[in-house]
Input
Amino acid sequence: MKPTLQVRLSQHLALTPQLQQSIRLLQLSTLELHQEVEQMLEQNPFLDVEEEGASPFETPLERPPMDSKVDRDEPFEGRGEHAEGADGAGGADGLAEMRAEDFGTPGRDDWENGTEGDDFDGIGETPRSRAALDGEDDSEMHERRGAGTTLPEHLRRQVAAMRLGPEDRAVLLALVESLDGDGYLADPLEDIEARLQQIVGVEPGSDAADVLHDRARCALRWLQSLEPAGVGARDLGECLALQLRHHPKSPARTLALRIAQNYLELLAKRDFRRLMSLTSASEELVRQAQALIVACEPKPGRPFADAESNVIVPDVIVRKSGRGLAVALNPDVMPRLRINDLYAQAARAQRGANGNPGLSARLQEARWFVKNVQQRFDTILRVSRAIVERQRAFFTHGAIAMKPLVLREIADELGLHESTISRVTTAKYMATPQGTFELKYFFGSSLNTDAGGNASSTAVRALIQRFVAAEDAGKPLSDSQISQMLEEQGIQVARRTVAKYREALKIAPAAMRKTL
Output
């Protein structure tokens, strides 16, 4: 083939490095953004942290132009209702007036968006711990948790106070290290013995192996005698039995121990008739035994879990202000960045003297980063204001008043792409008088009503929660009955859909909710 030269004219879309960085920062969570900022501060000498008391993102040389159409000084106004904006009462002074009780517990519900939440408020009750059973003050538990003590550390302190020989202590500490986060033995005792035999160099079947076997059995009993009660159990039944033995002797405790060791599955299924038949116990005694079991802690290691790692820091704060709602960015999550004035002047002097062009590139990179971080928060604020405007009834009446909302509605209103709204609402949280929620929580599909309107799936799930909370524990509502009750409210929901919503809310079926 003969080589030739050809000229082609074509069009293609190219993302500039600045736009790529803007998109990447927009989808980061608060924690990931702070890590990105720390990394940029280490890499770019032109980027610096603003002094205390100065406004965020202010630069001595110049303030980067804002592409956002939002005026930060413009107050947020509802439908005929005035509310102060981000720099009004929603600023630092306004935030200082906010009380902790204005906000509820964190919660999220992403079922409609394809990412089901891990927990739902008002469904799962945390059983009381052994401390509550023994009369230990709750403040001691909070103090122990606040000190950052882990379960192995707490157990090792107790082991240090025991009068044990070196061999017994070593085996007991090996069992402590074999516990999982819930306080259960992560591996069978036989596997732990086999590992100890390899470490010590003991031949299986020898006399030394028999001695090690006896030491492991004794060490397990010592471990299960430590606090918290139930630690070192190998299954749920053993965990409950260890805690029940701390109760005073009574017929109810004897029956509870028998149920925990033999009939726990029947109790989980609420098959009380068969329980009474197998145990020859009266209905009142079974009810008392059930109360003792329910009061136990199924996960003894839970009080020692790192609660701080599960704390959600909101990006946006919404509070009532007069007749309206004030929407403001959380100043605690906003990095205070600026361009280093001294280094910037030196770079400009070098540029005029034909100096190193790399300095100018690093300076421009720092300016882009400050601008993109600022634009990220401006976009979050715009989207949050639009959500609050659409879901105004939620902030007064709760989830039951949620309206149907999809990403495209917010995108069309703000002139943004739907993918941008998706990035903004992912891993971003809003603190409200109703609780703290991910921004995706305010979006949900619509269901038809008899009146010809639409009802939000979030509101329907809230109604299901309300129905279940008010039901007769002896005759819990079935999915069909809940569907009929929703139809009486004018909402058309099939039984299959009710079952899906109930499972998403982690509500057990009617047969498992039944109590005596």
